[in-house]
Design goal:
- It is built from 11 helices and 8 strands.
- With about 290 residues, the chain is α/β, with parallel strands linked by helices.
- It has 2 domains: about 210 residues, Malonyl-Coenzyme A Acyl Carrier Protein, domain 2; about 60 residues, Malonyl-CoA ACP transacylase, ACP-binding (Alpha-Beta Plaits).
- The strands form 2 sheets. A 4-stranded parallel sheet has the order 7-2-1-8, sandwiched between helices. Strands 4-5-3-6 form a 4-stranded antiparallel sheet.
- A hairpin with a 2-residue loop joins β4 and β5.
- α3 runs antiparallel to α5 and α6 packs across α7.
- The chain is globular and about 55 Å long.
- It starts with a strand and ends in a 5-residue tail after the last helix.
- The mean pLDDT is about 95.
Length: about 290
């Protein structure tokens, strides 16, 4: 017996040319997306003539749409729905669409607003720490006497993303490197998944309050709880996700307990599948 699990990637998985083999296969849905967004999604994704694909306001609705198209293709190829779905940060919206929590159009409106609010939130940065366990990170925080930086993504037991003030991240980087760990600044100018998202979190909470969600038809792992969603948690979890860390390692560990789990990433870069291989090789240490 096999457990089929679809995974939707988050921001960072976008690339010029994405969707090239999908737009013509599902033109009605792409037309609907372009009508809602008010611009050519095909041009943005395939050619990015104005270099907007890396702009969060455009990245998020574009990646959501292409992930949904990838889901439709995989469903058509495999001839079945998945047994579980999960998404990394933004990818959780595609996962919830698959589970029929909302329509494609509502998911697009939510990701469009989310992207706009995040793009308007300036200040701070993010840094990936590679080779450090969570216990080692906590010890370095204590040594540096840093209380201004948050854990943004727990991607694998040895890959963690931090969010906070740029100067404090740079100071932490020197300490991590002194101990032989890699510290890689990310190309963002906002401290996503941290306390610094409080203002946009309030605005998004007000926006999402107008939406109604349907009971989930497929179990969805929540970034906020690292457990399957309950039907009454959808709005709250999506809001809480904004200023809390993405608990990806725990989510995958939960799914690895299923009977013969088979993962399919809804994108071409296999970023999440590589994380799963690392999670399997390095049991979580605290």
């Amino acid at each position: 017996m096999m457990t089929l699990i679809f995974l939707a990637p988050g921001q960072g998985a976008q690339e010029r040319g994405m969707g090239a083999d999908l737009f013509e296969a599902y033109p009605t849905l792409v037309d609907e997306a372009e009508s809602i967004l008010g611009y050519s999604l095909r041009s943005l994704c395939l050619h990015d003539p104005d270099n907007k694909l890396s702009n969060t306001a455009y990245t998020q609705p574009a990646l959501y749409t292409v992930s949904v198209l990838n889901y439709l293709r995989q469903r058509d190829i495999l001839g079945r729905e998945p047994d579980f779905v999960a998404g990394h940060s933004l990818g959780e919206y595609c996962a919830l669409f698959i589970a029929e929590a909302f329509s494609f159009a509502d998911g697009l409106r939510l990701t469009q607003k989310r992207g706009e609010l995040m793009a308007a939130t300036q200040g701070g940065g993010m840094m990936a720490v590679i080779g450090s366990t969570r216990a080692e990170i906590d010890a370095i925080f204590k040594e540096a006497n840093i209380e201004s930086v948050d854990i943004a993504n727990l991607n694998t037991p040895l890959q963690t993303v931090l969010s906070g003030p740029v100067d404090d991240l740079q100071y932490l980087a020197t300490i991590f490197e002194r101990y032989g760990h890699r510290a890689v600044p990310l190309n963002v100018n906002t401290a996503f998944h941290s306390r610094y998202m409080a203002t946009m979190k309030s605005a998004f909470a007000a926006f999402i309050a107008d939406f109604r969600f349907s009971p989930l038809m497929v179990p969805v792992l929540s970034n906020f709880t690292a457990l399957p969603y309950r039907d009454n948690e959808i709005a709250n979890n999506l809001v809480q996700q904004l200023d809390h860390g993405v608990r990806w390692t725990e989510s995958i560990q939960y799914l690895l307990q299923e009977d013969n789990p088979q993962f399919v990433e809804l994108g071409s870069r296999n970023l999440l599948l590589r994380m799963i291989e690392e999670i399997k090789q390095h049991p979580l240490r605290t």
